[in-house]
Structures are given as C-alpha cells and as structure tokens.
Amino acid sequence: MRPSPHHARSARGLFGALLTSLVSLAALLTTASVAQADTTICQAFGTTTIQGRYVVQNNRWGTSATQCIAVTDSGFRITQADGSVPTNGAPKSYPSVYNGCHYTNCSPGTNLPAQLSTIANAPSSISYSYVNDAAYNASYDIWLDPTPRTDGVNRTEIMLWFNKVGSVQPIGSPVGTATVAGRQWQVWSGSNGSNDVLSFVAPSAISSWNFDVMDFARQAVSRGLAQNSWYLTSVQAGFEPWQNGAGLAVTSFSSTVNKGSTTDPGSPTDPGTPGGSTACKVAYGTNVWQGGFTADVTITNTGSSPVSGWKLAFTLPSGQQITNAWNANLSGSSGAVTASNVSHNGEVAAGGQATFGFQGSSSGTFTQPTAFSLNGTACATG
Question: What is the mean pLDDT of residues 117-135?
C-alpha cells in the first residue's frame, strides 16, 4: 500500500600474498553467487519482476530511513529496516509482491484490472516467515475501484491481516466478526482519508494459506463498499512495518484471475451473479425473543426491467446464527450470509417482490444488518 504519490589487505612474502589472493578470490566468488541468486533493492520505490509475472516493490514511503529487500524467485526478504515510526500512525512502508497494476506499473501479462462480474474465481496462495523483534502486520491487500484505473489510489482497499506483532491496529474501528473462506476474522472498517479500508484480522498468525480473493471482494460488495460493476485492479502480499522488520519474508506467492461467467443460466440457484436489473429495496422484519429471533425479508425490484435469478448478500451482527430458512438457499449461517432464490421465486418483475425468511439464535443486544446488496448492487432499506 502506498497511500500518497504515494574492502585492505596485507601479506608477508610471496606465499602469504598468494594465499591471501586465493582467499579474496573465494570471497568474491561467494559474493557473486549470492548476488546472482538475490537482487537487492534499497531504492524507496525500487521494483523488479519475478517468475516473469509478478512485481516485487520496496515501497518505502513513510520514512527516510534505509530499507532494503533481497528479492528471490519466489518472493523477498527484508534485509535492512532502519528507523521507526509511532505505532498509532501510518507504517513505514509496504514491501510487497503483487499481481496487477500499482501506480501505472503493471505486472507482466496480468489480466487486471478486471470487472468483478467477469471473474469466475481468483485463487491465490501466500507463505510468510515472521520475526518477533519488530512491530508490523503481514498484510494481503485487495484493491477495488469503480473504474479500470492503473494509477493512483483506488476507492476501496481490503486488507487481510495474517499476523500482527506489537501495538498496531487496522484503520477505523471493529464492526464485528465474520467467517470468510472458511476462517473466522475480526472485521474493521474505516477510511484513511484517501480510500475506504475494510480489514479482516486473523485471531492468530497464519503462516501460509490458499484461498479465493473473490470471497473477500464479495464481502466488500455485501457491506456497500464496492459494487459488482467495479474492478479488481491488484492483489498484493507483504508487510507493513512500524518498527524494525529485518528478517520478515514472503517465501512464496501466487495469484491467478480466472475470467468467465459465474452464472449458469440454467441454474437459478447458482452461487454466481445472476442477471437483470439490480435496483432494489429491502425490508427486514423481525420477531425477537430471549436467545432467538425470526426474520422476514422482502426484496422489491425498483428497477425498470425484471430480475432473473437473485442473490442477496448481507452480514449478520455478531452473536447471531441462522438455524433454518425458507424460500431461499443460504450460503453461510453467521457473519457474511448470501441468500439466493429457489426455483419458484427467481423471477422478479419490475416493481415486483420476492420474500424469504429464516430463524436463528442470538446472544447479547439484538441488532439488524445495516446493509444489503442484490446481485452486487447496494439496496435501499426500509
């Protein structure tokens, strides 16, 4: 993330001189071998490419102190991280490896930016190596924007905090928990003044993981921080250090964006993005008792054309879990939930409605979801 534009020798006798020369030659050969294996970058915004498809960037923007990274064919390692900045402010840098476009520098052969509605899936894998004598996060960034821009700051940044050490925290404030891609996360939401930031913080360190980036992009859509018509512009994996950081490493990284329709027209309950108008309004009626509740949901198509197959995404507040449902197929029972039509209610005429409901358990103070999106577009409520 870049939030702003962004050696003496001596010898005794002929034998001694020869011996010293041989030792020096061996040292030179060793150094040359290391230099061939690793490319060292100390320039603030220096970059290089690896595997002919990813860009590695030093990306030091929050301090004038030296930062160097050693780039390998599979990732990079921070070798020097001088200086420190207060942990209640922005980090020193974001050394990272990425697929996509960052400040006009696009990775070789990338198919990003890509419209979310055209992405079938975006599998990625990452492996990290951590240190303890530093203050930092290990962050995987996903950037979204309403336009296919390749320069500057995007509208929404999704951050996956795989690990954090020291008194550092995400931008904004905690807004609950969510289960995404099979893992539990603490969710934070806020703005850094340039873009919205949606952060998912792992409760304990994750050293390596394979996942689908689109699971998190859909979270941003369901929370009203993106739309299905927006573009995925880049995915980036690295570290945000505040203090020290030498020894931190990305040991492997991969990212693929598979294009193609996510909807099977013959399957109205397909988990992809159905077609048709998505101007909408949602009414969410509840009956609440100690430890439980029911919800009756009415979707009104306020657009001028029919909706053929629908998916309604929303996030249940913390402490709520769905136990059964009717008139919809549900993906997820707590946190991020997506309801999709069943065979008899997939067609919603302009001005028409579709209804479904569910029962669930709850703990603590009961609240309702604050945002809904239909087929990737935010709905009005009331």
Answer: 93
DSSP-derived secondary structure for 316-344: PPTT-EEEEEESSEEE-SSSEEEEE--TT
Q: How far apart are CA 108 and CA 350, in angstroms?
A: 44
Is there a cis peptide before residue 113, judged by omega within 30 degrees of 0?
yes
pLDDT digits (tens, 9 = 90+) for 165-205: 999 999 999 999 988 888 999 999 999 988 999 999 999 99
With tokens 């001596």, the residue in question is 10
Burial 271-307 (b: 16+ CB within 10 A, else e): ebbbbbbbbbbbeeeeeeeeebbebebebbbebeeeb
- Residue 378 makes CB contacts below 8 A (sequence gap 6+) with 224, 227, 371, 372
CA–CA separation, 45 vs 212, rounded Å?
29
Percentage of the chain modeled with pLDDT above 70: 85
| Residue of 166, 250, 256 lying closest to 208 (CA atoms) | 250
Q: Which residues are catalytic?
A: 157, 240
338 burial level (CB within 10 Å; 0-12, 13-18, 19+): middle
